[in-house]
Design a protein that fits this description.
Radius of gyration: 13 Å
Order of helices and strands: EEHEHHH
Distance between the termini: 7 Å
Oligomer: single chain
Strand content: 15-25%
Structural class: alpha+beta
Strand order of the largest sheet: 1-2-3
Shape: globular
Largest sheet: 3 strands, antiparallel
Number of strands: 3
Length: about 90
């Protein structure tokens, strides 16, 4: 799965935001605020990834258990899907 093109992640103060560029501004009004975990997962989506790779990445990066990592990914993907930010497969 991959994030649609036309978005850029930026750090602002203590958080990250996903900002639409050019044509994406019309489709996605505003910005998506991300915590550190969300920013990590957005980076994975920018590069193109799978749920398994996201899971492995979170477990390794944050030293958390499988269940917690999977719940975080599911919550994150629910938001990303609701905002229609993933490329069609």
């Amino acid at each position: 799965m991959k994030l649609k093109s036309g978005f850029v992640k930026r750090k602002m103060a203590d958080c990250y935001v996903l900002v639409p560029l050019e044509d994406r501004i019309i489709d996605f009004k505003g910005m998506l605020t991300l915590n550190e975990t969300g920013a990590f997962l957005i980076d994975k989506l920018i590069d193109g990834t799978t749920v398994d790779a996201m899971l492995d990445g979170l477990i390794n990066e944050y030293d958390i258990d499988n269940e917690t990592a999977m719940k975080d990914i599911e919550n994150f993907l629910e938001i990303v899907n609701r905002e229609n930010l993933l490329e069609e497969e």
